[in-house]
Amino acid sequence: MPSVKIPRKSTDTDMTPFVDIAFLILSFFIMATKFKPPEPVEIKTPGSVISQKMPESNAVLISIDSSNKVYFTLKSEKEPEKFDELIKGINEKQNLGLTPAEINNFKKTIMVGVPFSQLKGLLDLDPKEQEKIKQPGIPVLDSTNNQLVWWIQQCKVAFAGEQLVYLIKGDGASKYPAFEAVVEALKKNDELKYGLVTDLDDVPKGSALDIAQQQGLK
């Protein structure tokens, strides 16, 4: 009986389609990923065990560094036109003489930490150049010239009828007078609620929060 020879087939697999798919997936993640912008000022916040995501819109972030300098940041990703309303109000009330280009540059500015007398010079710089300079901080310690009051006031005007979240991010080495001046600026604008930005620590074992979390998992 004649033997039948089964034709041999190659066991090699063409990986080209898989490589194409891998590159497509990688390209998607690169395009869709939102990278956190570098912070121009290093602030080492104290730790806490409460975890809550920082809002990315309709929020005012007030930062205090280790040398008690105060900085202002507006977070309004859903309504970028609020940046124009805010800076135009500041420009008019403080008579700064900002150009249209400087007003437009405000929405690209990560952090403002200068007195009004230096704001025009700051906004005249490219955002990358702004990161290279050391800002002196917004004047707050003089109760008669707490310029943070004006920033908060104009934020309320720009976001009239909308809820704003106020956040304070203080360095663990900052002193109480700076924090007190920030809170006073909020009070002068009838804003008595604010959140504190901290680093997330582990929940202490056996604490009330740890027991509550364990019971929630059951």
Question: Descriptors for this entry?
Answer:
alpha/beta; globular; 38% helix; two-stranded parallel sheet; 218 residues; 11% strand
Describe the structure concisely.
This protein has 218 residues and is an alpha/beta fold. Helix content is 38%, strand content 11%.
| Helicity level | 25-40%
Mind describing the biggest β-sheet?
A: 4 strands, mixed
Secondary-structure class = alpha/beta
The amount of beta strand, in percent, is 5-15%
The end-to-end distance, rounded to whole angstroms, is 71 Å
N to C succession of SSEs: HEEEHHHHHEHEEH
| Parts with pLDDT < 50 across at least 5 consecutive residues | none
* Beta strands, count: 6
Strand order of the largest sheet: 3-2-4-5
Mean pLDDT: 81
Mind telling me the C-alpha Rg? 26 Å
Layout of helices and strands, plus pairs?
Layout: H1 16-32, E1 47-48, E2 59-64, E3 70-75, H2 81-94, H3 100-105, H4 116-123, H5 127-130, H6 148-158, E4 165-170, H7 176-188, E5 195-196, E6 199-200, H8 208-217
Parallel strand pairs: 1-6, 2-4, 4-5
Antiparallel strand pairs: 2-3
Protein described:
By secondary structure, the chain is α/β, with parallel strands linked by helices. The protein contains 8 helices and 6 strands; from the N terminus they run H-E-E-E-H-H-H-H-H-E-H-E-E-H. The chain has a domain of 145 residues. A 4-stranded mixed β-sheet has the order 3-2-4-5, covered by helices on one side. The chain has a two-stranded parallel ribbon with strand order 1-6. Helix 2 crosses helix 6. The longest helix has 17 residues.
